[in-house]
Amino acid sequence: MSLFEENAAILRNMEAEGSDLGPSRLIDFSHVFPDHASAHAFARKAEREGFSTTVEEVERDENPWDVTASREMTPTCENITGTEERLDVLAKSHHGRADGWGFFRV
Q: What is the pLDDT of residues 26-84, one digit of tens each?
C-alpha cells in the first residue's frame, strides 16, 4: 500500500467515525532523530518553510529526539501526503525520518 493510499484510508476512517475533515486545522507531522544537532537542524529548516516546530528528547534507545513540524491546512490526502513526503526528505537529509502525522479531531 502506498503512502497516499494509507493516508486516504486513515482519513476515510476518521470521517466514518464522525470527524469533520472540511475545516482547515493545525496538522502535526512527527519525526525522530538520533541526536540533538540533527533534530535542531531539521527544525530550523522546517521553520524556514513555514512550519512551527517543537523539539524534545524522549526516553527511547533509538532516535531519542522528537521533532513535531506543524502547519495549518485542510486535511486532504493530497495535502497530508505531499507535506509528509517533503518533510521526510528533509528529515532524512539530517539522519532522521518521518514518524506519522495527526491532528485534533472535531
A: 999 999 999 999 999 999 999 999 999 999 999 999 999 999 999 999 999 999 999 99
Domain assignment of residue 43, yes or no = yes
Q: Is the pLDDT of residue 16 over 80?
A: yes
Question: Burial code of 60-93, b = ≥16 C-beta within 10 A, e = fewer?
Answer: eeebbbbbbbbbeeebebeebbebbeebbebbee
Per-residue pLDDT, 23: 85
How many domains does the chain fold into?
1
Instruction: List, in sequence order, every beta strand (DSSP E) within the chain.
Output: 25-33, 52-57, 65-73, 97-102
Query: Does residue 81 form part of some domain?
Result: yes
In a domain, 20, yes or no: no
Q: Which three cell numbers stand for residue 76?
A: 486532504
Residues near 93 by Cβ (< 8 Å), separated by ≥ 6?
A: none
